[in-house]
Design a protein that fits this description.
280 residues, alpha/beta, 5-stranded mixed beta sheet, 12 strands, globular
Amino acid sequence: MAIYAIGDIQGCYDEFKLLLERIQFDASHDKLWLTGDLVNRGPRSLEVLRHVKSLGAAAITVLGNHDLHLLAVRMGTESKLKNSDTFDEILAAPDRDELLSWLRQQPLLHHDVQLQWTLIHAGLPPQWTLQQAIACASEVESTLRDPHSARELFEHMYGNEPDVWESELTGWPRLRFITNCLTRLRACTADGKLKLKYKESPSTLRDSTYPWFKVPSRRTRNDRIIFGHWSALGYHDADNVLGLDTGCVWGGALCAVRLDQASRSRVEVKSISGGLPLDD
């Protein structure tokens, strides 16, 4: 059995299928870990959703910000729809409700005790331990899995405040902070203030701001974490983290890395559909 982690697909179905062929993925024996953002901006988000769902237990995907945005639009926050969103085909599909119900059940964080890897979409604040991260992710996951509370979450999800973790946070501010970390975070200050608007290369960071995984006081620095979300960072295998968003939808590549071997092998498929302007 082989276990592969794959970065943000974002509707790049042709590249996804080709990548699976190149790694000789067999759903009867192998496993996929997907960093989230299955949908949006790319040309074939509907096919990506259908294919990942069809893999059943052979695929583990965490939710990314674009996945949550799709769910929010479907569940009543159409006012948040952007001109660049490419959800029309999904929203018009006959199996739309089945697909989105399945998507809403997916986790924000997956931890494998045996492999000692943790899968998220974006980042973790430096104050959290891994156990805190797991517990916080579970709070949002439980909210998402109930249709009524999920709808309320989406009404309160958008926004950048609060931007610093406090254990005393409650209600929607707490859930918004957790969601922002796990699905939007790239950089923060040394004391954990989130810089959620930042999306450029780490080389441009200034004023005591760090990539989230380089904050000196990060309490998860001894835990191995896989993430996506940061296409300007690209492939990153250092600092006890594995960053896999190689920007396929922006004209880069879709990347797979084998996790169950001491020496990690990496396979990439270059973008077929061409690049889009860099965005969130």
